[in-house]
Amino acid sequence: MAVTRRAVLGDALRTLGTRSTPAGRRTMVTRSQLPFAVLLTVALGTILLTDAAAASVLVAIPWAVVAVVTGVLYLVPWEARAEYTGLATSLVDIAALVVVLVDLDGRVPEVALLQLIPIVVMAYCFGIAGLAASILSTFAVALVPASIRADAALAPLEVVGLLVSAVAISLVAVGVYGAAILLTRAQKRLSDAVVAADDQNTVILTVLEAIDAGTAFVRSDRSLAFTNSAFRELVERSRVDPETLAGTRVFGADRTTPLGPEDQMIAQALRGEYFDSRLHWVGEPGAQHSVLVSARPVVRADGVLLGSAFVSKDVTELTDAIRAREDFLAGVSHELRTPLTSIIGYLEVIQDSVDAGTLGVQRELDIVQRNATQLMMRIGDLLHVADETVTMRARPAEVTRIAEQAVGAIRIRAESAGLELTCALCPSFEATIDQNRFAQVIDNLLTNAVKYTPRGGHVRLVLDNDDERMTLSVADDGIGIAEDEQPRVFERFYRTESVRGGAIGGAGLGLSIVRRIVQGHGGEVGVVSAPGAGSTFTVVLPLSPPPGSPALP
Q1: Sign (positive or negative) of CA dihedral 47, 53, 56, 57
Q2: Could you tell me the pTM of the whole model?
C-alpha cells in the first residue's frame, strides 16, 4: 500500500518542510496554507469595506471554513498522514474559493487568482494525483461559478475566455509539476552524492585511524582539516602551539639542538616545500621519540596552494635497535680482539720455539694461524662498522706502489681459485691519502671480485689519474648483481639474493667499509653490473682531500 501511495502522490511535502515533527508541520502550514487564508481574508475584507452589496453574509461561511482548517492544521498532529491531509486541505481551499466566487456572482473576477496558491501546492507536492487535482480545480473555479449565476446565459466569447483562463492556469500547474520532478531528481542525486562522499570520508578516516603512521592535512590558513590519533600523539609530544603550529619540544637528528618554528616541518611544508623521511626527535629529554616525517604540498590545478599533507612514522624502536646493535658490535669486537691477539701471539711464539715439522703438527698450526688471522680481520671489519666516525691519517703516499702490493697480496689466492688477475697501472704518482685505508679499499674490492667470480674467470684492476683526481676500477666477469639490488650493495650487512641463496660466505661488510673510507677521502664509489655478466666497481678520489674532509692530516 505504501508503494502504491508513493507512486500516486509522490514524496508529498518533501520540499515544504520536515513533516515528521511538529515544527515541520507548522512550517508546512506557514508556507502553503497560511498565505491562502491571509489573502482570502484581505480580499473579502476589502470587498465588504468598499462595496458591501457585492457579497452576501453567506461569504463568511467559506472564509470561516478556511480559517478553521488553518488553525486545525497548526494544532492537530496530522504529519503521519501528510499526503492525504495536505491534498485534502488544498481541495478544501478550492471548494471555499468556488463558493466565494458563486456568492460574488462575477462582480469581482480577480478573486479567482487566489486559486494559484492551492493549485501550485498540489502540482508541486503531490505527484501525478496532485497534478490531476489541480487541473480539475482550475476548470471548476472557471466554470462552476459561471454556470450557476443568476443570469445563467453565457456568451460564447465569455465561455471561451473562461476555458482559456482554465487552460492557462492548468499549464502553470503542469510547469510546476515538471519543475517539482526535476528538483526531486536533483535532490536525489545531490543526496546520493552527499551520502557517497560521507561514506568515502568515513572509510578514509577509519583507514587512517587504523594505521600506526601519523597522517594530517593542514590547510593553507594553518587550520587542521583532519588528523589521526598517531599524528595527534606526535603533536602532544612536540608541545605544538595551536596558533603557530610550532612545537617547543622538537629537536634535530642530534637529539639536543632545538628546531626553531621556521625550521619545523609544518612551517616548511606550508611554504610549499616537500621532503621525505626527515628525522626529528620530539618529547621531553629522557623520553624522546624518533620520528620520520614526510610532507607534500597539495596544489590545485590552477596553482593555488590548498595546504600540505603530512605522514609521520615513529621509529624510536628501530633507532634504539640500531644503536643497540652498534653498541653490541663494538663491545663484542673489543672483547674478542683481546684474547684473539693473545692466541695469535702465542702461536707465533710456538712456531719460533719448536720445529713444528719435526713434531708433525706444521699443517695443523698453519690452519690455526690462518683461521686466527681471518678471524682478526673479521673483528676489524666489525670495529670499522661499529665506529660512527671515520678517522683518517692522510699523508702523501705513492699510490701505484700501494696498488701493486695489494695485487701481489691477492694474486696467490686468485691463482688457487683458477682466475686470471691482471692490472693496468699508470706511472707512479702521489696523492694525499690514508695509505692503510686505501690499501683496505683495494683489498676489499679485489677480494670480492675473486670470491664471486667462477673458476676460469678474469679479474682486472685499472688505476689512472689526471691533475685533480685518480680513478680506480676493479672489474670481473663473475655472477653479477641485479639492477634493483645495486643501490643496496654498499649497505652494512646487505648480501644479494644470489649470494644468500648460494654457498658463498661473508658478512656483507666489505663494500660498506669501502664506501665509508672513500667518502672519508671526499670521493665517490659506484658499480655497474648485470646478472651473469660480471661487475665493475669504480672509485674516484681527489688527489688532495677537500677542506673539512676527515682524511685531512
Answers
A1: positive
A2: 0.47
